[in-house]
Specification:
heterodimer, A: 130 residues, mainly alpha, Four Helix Bundle (Hemerythrin (Met), subunit A), 5 helices, B: 126 residues, alpha/beta, five-stranded parallel sheet, 4 helices, globular
Chain lengths: 130, 126
Amino acid sequence: MAKPATLPVLDLNVLIAMYGDDSAETITLALSGFRREATHYVQQLQRGGQHDVLTDNALADTARLCHSLKSMCGLVGAAKLMQLCMTLEQAARQQDLIILQSELLNLAEVWPELLSQLNLTLLQHGYADE
Amino acid sequence: MLMSNILFIDDDAFILNAYQRMLRGSVYQAFYLQQPAQLWQQAYLTSLTIVLADQQMPGITGTELLLQLQLEYPEIKRVLISGDLTLAIKQRAPELTLDAALPKPCSKAALLDCLQRLSGGLTATT
């Protein structure tokens, strides 16, 4: 498995292959929808990680959020965040708090990098934020 | 033209939107449901030929829902979609039979191939 640092932040070829469509309309629809949903998921993950004590419910929530976000990343080619979600999900399921906390810190770097790529790619494809 | 009525069940709106986009212009009449519990109230339920359900949903798993469907409407074909297919299939009730299983996320090509196979060779190109 590739190391997160070597993975692309956003690979449009994956999105195009998954959707079977390379039109700007599909690319902007997919990326704007992903940006909206992923922002919500990341906020929830970061809120959950701020607690000193992670209960079983909080760990289950983290695993569930990462599982869903991982699939969304796979659809649009957000490989780096997808890899991070896989690690986070596994750590949450195994109740490995050390890896969990360390990977949540990585999220604070990986997400802004992806968000910046999303904004740039959307702009390049003619998408204007409302 | 012969239409095949299919239903996607997934609590994630983004994923449902992706399926909708992938099937745009296809021969399939597709329905989308975010709340699995609402399946039984849908007027189109008896017209369905294929139901595709995500495994991880709040309140009920895809395999549990598909088992209920199998008991109530055995003629409807059942497809499980999961980010961890091996685990989902391993954990399913032994009496559940699946017509197909797809990884999540799945590509348009994989989705159309599966639907075409299950609907008896309907051509579904856009």
